[in-house]
Fold:
Amino acid sequence: MVAAKKTKKTHESINNRLALVMKSGKYTLGYKTVLKSLRNSKGKLIIIANNCPPLRKSEIEYYAMLCKVGVHHYNGSMSLNIFNHFVY
Structure:
């Protein structure tokens, strides 16, 4: 019971932080723009939704590894399955 409650709090915390970043305007959405940001070393963290295709996910992880940028796998679909990749 405690683990489930903690997991729910963690998801709520991540969702709140994502909302805060979205309000700040310092983010990039979409596969191509995320790759451009990685090539230009402008990203700090990449959040990949769980509905991202495996090939794209592995390509983004590869570029992130080269640029030494963190990657987080988000369990949600980031609203209407539109936003697959998120950099801030």
Q: What stands out?
A: The first strand starts at residue 28 and ends at 29. The chain has one domain: 26-87.
